Each structure stands twice: as C-alpha cells, then as structure tokens.
Amino acid sequence: MDQESIKNRLQEKYPSYQIDEGGQWIVLNVPVSDWKQVAAELRNEAEFELDFLFCLTAVDWKTHFSVVFHLRSILHNHELVVKVKIDDRQNPVLETVSDIWRTAEFHEREAYDLFGIRFNYHPDLRRLFLTEDWKGWPLRKDYEDPVNMIKL
Amino acid sequence: MLEEIGTSAEGDLIINVGPQHPSTHGVLHLVITLQGETIKKVEPHLGYIHRSIEKMCESLSYRQFIYVTSRMDYLSSHINNLGCALAVEKGLQVEVPRRAMVIRVLMSELTRLASHQLWWGAMAMDIGALTPFFHAFREREMINDIMEETCGARLTMNYMVPGGVMFDLHPDFQKKVKEFIAHFKGKIDEYDELLTGNVIFRERTVGVGKISREDAISYGCSGPVARAAGVSCDIRKHAPYDMYSELKFDEILHTDGDCYARYLVRMQEMRQSLNIIEQLIDNIPEGDFQAKTKAVLKLPKGEYYSMVETARGEFGVYIISEGAMTPYRIKFRSPGFSNLSALDHMAKGSKIGDLVAIMGTLDLVIPDIDR
Q1: Residue A35 domain-assigned (yes or no)
Q2: Angstrom distances, CA of residue B278 to CA of B248, B303, B365
Q3: Would you call A16 an interface residue with chain B, using a CB distance cutoff of 8 Å?
C-alpha cells in the first residue's frame, strides 16, 4: 500500500487515534492501554502484515516518554511508525510485544536498561548493557553522568 | 575458554564462553546451558564495550557525531558514516553532487569487500582452517592501502560528510582499484576452490544453525543472515540511496538458512560488489566532491530516518531534531544487535562445537552490537 491508502485504512480502522503525516512515514499514535491489541492486528492482518520490526526505541520528552516502533512489511514493502506515549514518568510501564516480534525481546531490554521503561510480561527483563547494580537510566534527559567524557 | 563451570538444578552443565574468547572476535560473553554435548540455551551477556554512543551524540554537533559512528561497526565504517550523512542531508535537503555519489558507492562496495574478506578468513580460522586467513588478509591489505591514500585512514575512515565526501580521490585511485579488481577476480575463484567445495568444511556448515524464513523476519535479521533464509531485504534494492538504483546487480538469495547458505550469500555478494565497482570505476564524473553546506549545521525540527546496507545488514540512523545544533535524540539501528538475538534460536539443539560455526557465519562485530 502507498502512504495515502495506509492512512485512509488506518483512519477507518482506528478513528480515535491521531495520525501524523508529512514526515517520511505515516505515524500512528496509540494509547498505552491499546498497544498490545493494535500490535497484534498490525502484525497479523493481511492488508498490513507488518512482520518486520526494524527499530524500537524510546525518547525522553522531559514531561513524558514516547516509545517508537518502526515497522515494515516484507511482503508489501511498506512501512509504518507507531508511537506510544507514556505519561507516567515515575513508573513508565508498557506491555511487551516480544511474543509478536521476537526481536523486541532484546530491543525492549535495551529500552529498559537505558530509559527505565518496564515492559510487562517480558520473558526476561533485565539490564542489557549495564550492570545490575547501575544507578539511574542513562538516556533520560535528567541523568547526570559523574564522568562525562564529552564535557570534561 | 571456560572461566566457571557449574551445574543447574536439573543437572545441566553451564559454561561461560568469553568475554575473552578467540571465536567471539571481541568481548562477547555467552552463558551456555548444555545437556551432554547438546546446547539447550545460549544467553548473550552484552555491554563489555558499551560506550553509550547514543548519549554521546546528544552533545555532539551534526558534523562531529559521524566520527563516533566509525567506531561502531569498524569493518563497515564507510557505510556507517554514509548512513549518518544521508540522515543529515535529509534534514538539510542538500543536493549531493554526482561525483560524490559515485565516490560514496565505490567506497561502500570496497568496504563491503574488505569486510567480507575479513569475515571469510576469520570464520574459516574459527572452524579450523588456518590458511584462508592469510589469503584474505593479503587481499584486504590492498583495499586498506587504497583507502589510506584517499581517506588517510585504514579502519575508521570518517570520509563521508553531509553533502558529499571530505577529500577528492587520490590521483592513483582508479589505477589502483583496477589493479585490485584484476587481481581479486582470480583470487576469489581461488577462495572458492580452497574452501567452498571442501568436504570437511561442508560437514561443519551444511544443515547447521538453521533458521526459517518466518523466524528470520520475526527476529529482525537482516543482511546476509536474512537473505540466506530467503528474506529479500537488501536496502540497496528496496530503498535505494545515492545511485544504487541506476546500477545493475543481483540480490543474492538462498533458502536453506543454514551456515553454508550464509557462507554462499557472502561469497556471491563479493562478486556482486566487484561487478558494481567495475560499472563505476571508469565512469567517475568530473565536478565537485562536496556540496556547499554551512559551517554550523542545524536540522529543522522533525524526525529523520535513513537506512543503508552495511556488510552485516540494515543499519538505520534515527535523528530527532528540535532545531538545535545538536540532535535531541539519536538511535542507531545496528544490524548485529538484531542478528545476535537470533543466536539462541539458531544454536538450540546443536552440538557445542557447532556454536563456533554459527557465530562465525553471523559475522558479529561486537562494538556494533554494544554501541
């Protein structure tokens, strides 16, 4: 599908979600509570078949987090970006999608390690790069590194 | 190799491979659960060379951050730099001169050749064939010399910049590349004779470390690992950048998904890279090698994602700009990270000796995974 028909199809299917366009790809904004359901639909429904999760990351916007999923369909060769906004900065939680896209298991561990976003029902949610006793979440904007190589 | 040996509650043997182990080619730590000789589980422990490059990039300017990316996948440094340059160019909407585009593609393909050569030698050495290592490094040296003349560096090039390339080509570039092509065409046949048909090598790789097409997609595999399982995912074909859309080359696909298929994909890709270089080397247009850009780059507010095909697979650069001199957030989608996540799935049920063959054909570069 081209971008225009993806947008139209998404608007029909999810009328309450905000859809951003004008960038490289269509962006679908999904509420935290619906994410697991929407993920399964985007992956499994034949018209989308977004089976390849090529990038999963989080962004700290100081007031909230947004978790960004870049999805591609190998069959249809189209892409879609999904953003999930998490308002709770103290205790950010999202449901895992590692059973839908297996690659998410590692990517979610990375997001947990560097942003402190917890993924519920994740099979093995531990720190990935840093040691278990590391304090803080390095990629958050309020994290101060005691030894900052750049600002030295 | 074995730092600690323990047994689990079920009586399984748990061994550690790494973080310092010759077959990991870097500092990767694997905790392997064995039942007898059969692998039950492989658990990678990452982070021994984690430098938090993404955090560093948040305080570097758009010209500076490209230098750091050479230190990620150091065998594909040109292509990493290119991915970053493309993302910045998307934001600035610069028109890259044609000469620069040709130089970029030439350098990318030379890098791919050098990376595959090193992989070929190192993988064969892991499996127990020592000779290929010397053959591969002899030819790789020629590419390194060509790079050194033009870029001034042999490993971390930092040659691609937003708007083009940093310097013009060395006057000897064309002559040397042609010499290399003539030389390497004979040598790659020799590579095939030496290893591809070898019975012992085939015994070690055919049917080992299988991954199906569906699993390769689900695990986010890309590059030769995915193409060996029949996933058509070459970014050069599906989302062509620079001037790949004008070039004639084949995307190599195999369907077996085992170590031997991954081996064949890379061997045939080398021939395709030679083919691309041959198409371009006599057709380097005259003109500027760099577009004019401002001294201080500021990307308009927005999000920019670029992807390139490195020797290991799909490398993505995701820049979020708030209009400042430094990016608000950068994410690097590194191919090795996703490919490694499939290691447990591939190795399950294999013998412990096969693990080295599987890791060898995954072509892991640890700084690329840890970032």
Answers
A1: yes
A2: 11, 36, 28
A3: no
